[in-house]
Design brief:
By secondary structure, the protein is an alpha/beta fold. The chain folds into 2 domains: 6-238, 3-Layer(aba) Sandwich (Rossmann fold), CATH 3.40.50; 256-332 and 418-503, P-loop containing nucleotide triphosphate hydrolases (Rossmann fold), CATH 3.40.50.300. Helix content is 32%, strand content 24%. It has helices spanning 44-51, 74-79, 97-102, 115-128, 144-157, 174-189, 201-207, 230-238, 297-305, 340-344, 351-355, 362-365, 373-386, 403-416, 433-448, 460-466, 488-495, and strands at residues 6-15, 18-28, 33-38, 59-64, 67-69, 82-85, 162-166, 193-197, 210-215, 218-224, 256-266, 272-282, 285-290, 312-317, 333-336, 421-425, 452-456, 469-474, 477-482. The strands form 4 sheets. It has a 6-stranded mixed sheet, sandwiched between helices. The chain has a 6-stranded mixed sheet with strand order 15-16-17-13-18-19, with helices on both faces. The protein has a 4-stranded antiparallel sheet with strand order 2-1-4-5, covered by helices on one side. A hairpin with a 2-residue loop joins strand 9 and strand 10 (218-224). The longest helix has 16 residues, at 174-189. The chain binds adenosine-5'-triphosphate (ATP). Adenosine-5'-triphosphate (ATP) is lined by residues 15, 18, 20, 38, 40-46, 390-391, 400-405.
Length: 504
């Protein structure tokens, strides 16, 4: 048997008081897909960053293909054949695919490779792994799923034998995710090794050979995937049994709180993004909007939140607390944006500053230099406790929280302000199974307290678990409305634009 592709022994890493990794052992066999799972903040990204040379471990050893190595930076990782595809891509958007792939690979053995030769190599890789990417396309024009493939190409071009992917499917449509899994299968078939961080246990079951579980900085278990189950993995991650679907009673809808009538959104290129959308959300109900991402849900959500353009049509709110503010049409309208980095957080601000972002009313917090720092701190502490944000440190920069904990900071701010109407985009993106359970419970509690909730999610399971009514969008249009009892197939047909299939 050949030496493992990777062998970590006793890896520890601290950031100040936070023990992100504690004495971690991990063995990854060559030619396998190895899943790494764990709660938000468990230390998965830190461990992978050590392997990729972004961070240095405080203690422990790394062996690649049986040989002890020191990985002092990402160049060293690349020269050892380790490549990484990040959660947030590191591509230069105005450049072409070919230019991006060549960029930064100019050093070493690739130095003398001319453009024509680079193109040949790129085309070879692209065919071998069924990546389907046009070398001359401008990266900024490509959908995220294809941009991700460019990242993979970039790693392969640099000779990666071991590929690390950090939550690769968080931003993908189901079709794109399936394509990615085919690519990963192809990589394995060619003898390459894949390390996959994901929160989606179904993905772990479908594609990995082995899976390792982290909890609070430690490695708590490793399993052959064939010998475990989603239930066991969820329990190992969180340390208790997890309800994968939260119980909810009948809805008790009251008055209409939000009404959208004949809404059209045409973007700056003249493309109609939302076409004649009309819907209502009542107090005490959750209305879900299902659809493959990119079918107008984001534009609809932003128009309702008052931060995106409306070409024609109207959005009306009824009996909502508070006056319009520069950040939202009404104080009583909560909005969890789909993209926490672009719109939900200012990552270089502290957690406590983010906790009041957009809510910094003078009556509550004062203003400018006179801001009541004590009130801001208390608010943040309260939020952190309610949403189990880890670490519960209001003075940490938002950027230094793990992805899932950043999401909890945004959710806490919008939900704890007691909105009458809450519009939520992708509430559990990047969030672990235990936190999903808590967030789903909270949303149902809000509904039961008479709040009106509009939920947009690309996770069909989430839409079906939470919604009292489900509206399906396709190509900017509302294709139809179904009840929560609708089957995945019925909703799937509407999601692909087939209107009368739902009755079949
Ligand atoms: N640069 C940093 N400075 C301070 N603390 C950090 C830094 N990077 C990570 N941490 C902390 O280390 C811990 C582990 O974070 P890490 O990002 O590795 O978790 P994760 O398992 O990848 O989480 P998620 O699933 O939410 O992405 C967290 O408590 C995080 O706040």
């Amino acid at each position: 048997m050949s030496a493992p592709a990777i062998e970590l022994k006793g890896i520890s890493k601290s950031f100040g008081a936070v023990h992100a990794n504690r004495d971690i052992d991990l063995t990854v066999e060559k030619g396998t897909i190895h899943g790494i799972i764990g709660e938000n903040g468990a230390g998965k990204s830190t461990l992978m960053s050590i392997l990729y040379g972004f961070y240095q471990a405080d203690k422990g050893t790394i062996a690649v293909d049986g040989a002890r190595v020191t990985i002092k930076d990402s160049d060293a990782a690349i020269s050892l054949g380790i490549g990484m595809v990040h959660q947030h891509f590191m591509l230069v958007e105005p450049f072409t695919v070919l230019e991006n792939v060549m960029l930064g690979a100019e050093g070493g053995a690739l130095l003398n490779r001319g453009r024509a030769e680079a193109r040949k190599e790129l085309e070879r890789l692209e065919k071998e792994y069924e990546l389907n990417v046009d070398p001359d396309a401008i990266v900024g024009d490509l959908p995220v799923g294809i941009q991700q493939r460019v990242e993979i190409l970039k790693a392969l071009y640099r000779g990666a034998e071991i590929l690390i992917l950090d939550e690769p499917t968080g931003v993908l449509t189901p079709d794109e995710a399936d394509h990615l899994f085919r690519i990963l299968g192809q990589l394995r078939a060619q003898g390459k090794t894949v390390l996959l961080i994901t929160h989606k246990l179904r993905e772990i079951m479908a594609i990995t050979d082995d899976v390792s579980v982290m909890r609070q900085g430690q490695m708590v278990a490793s399993r052959h995937t064939a010998e475990t189950s989603v239930e066991e993995l969820a329990e190992l991650m969180v340390g208790r049994r997890v309800l994968l679907r939260v119980e909810k009673g009948e809805a008790n809808p009251g008055k209409v709180k939000l009404e959208v009538s004949g809404l059209n959104v045409v973007d700056e290129l003249g493309v109609a993004r939302v076409k004649e959308a009309s819907l209502q959300v009542r107090a005490g109900e959750i209305v879900g909007i299902a659809g493959v991402s990119g079918n107008g849900q984001s534009e609809l959500l932003e128009a309702i939140a008052g931060i995106g353009p409306i070409t024609t049509g109207s959005v009306e709110l009824f009996d909502i607390a508070g006056e319009p503010t520069p950040w939202r049409p009404r104080h009583g309208l909560g909005h969890v944006p789909e993209d926490r980095h672009k719109m939900g957080l200012v990552t270089k601000f502290l957690a406590k500053e983010n906790a009041v972002l957009g809510y910094q009313r003078e009556d509550e917090f004062g203003s400018g230099v006179m801001m009541d720092k004590g009130a801001v701190l208390e608010t943040c502490k309260r939020h952190m406790e309610a949403f189990d944000v880890r670490p519960p440190d209001p003075n940490l920069k938002a950027a230094n929280f793990s992805g899932g904990n950043q999401q909890k900071i945004v959710l806490a701010r919008e939900i704890e302000n007691d909105p009458d109407v809450l519009i939520v985009g992708q509430p559990t993106r990047g969030v672990d199974v235990g936190a999903i359970e808590a967030i789903h419970r909270r949303l149902i509690e809000l509904r039961d307290a008479g709040k009106a909730i509009l939920l947009v999610s690309v996770e069909l399971d989430e839409i079906r678990a939470l919604s009292d009514r489900i509206i399906v969008m396709f190509a900017g249009e509302i294709m139809g409305e179904v009840g929560p009892e609708a089957t995945e197939r019925e909703i799937g047909l509407l999601m692909s634009g087939v209107r009368d299939g739902a009755a079949a």
